[in-house]
Write a structure and sequence with these properties.
single chain; mainly beta; HSP40/DNAj peptide-binding domain; two-stranded antiparallel sheet; 5 strands; about 40% strand; globular
Length: about 70
């Protein structure tokens, strides 16, 4: 049984709803990213990956749900 390779980048967040555009942390990087997507993290799983850039968003302990 093989394990999955690690996600390219991991971001710890405190909300179950996050946005990813692939380049928000790069100065002037908007042209380098992808369309902005909103990702819902299932608290039971604790993480979710962006379908475009594979960035993994990990819910910090005691995260709060976004309503």
């Amino acid at each position: 049984m093989s394990s999955q390779p690690p996600a390219p980048e991991t971001v710890t967040v405190t909300s179950t709803r996050v946005a990813c555009d692939g380049a928000s942390d790069i100065p002037g990087g908007a042209a380098l990213g992808h369309p902005r997507v909103f990702i819902e993290i299932d608290p039971d799983i604790g993480h979710a990956d962006c379908g475009y850039c594979d960035r993994r968003f990990v819910l910090a302990g005691g995260g709060e749900a976004h309503h």
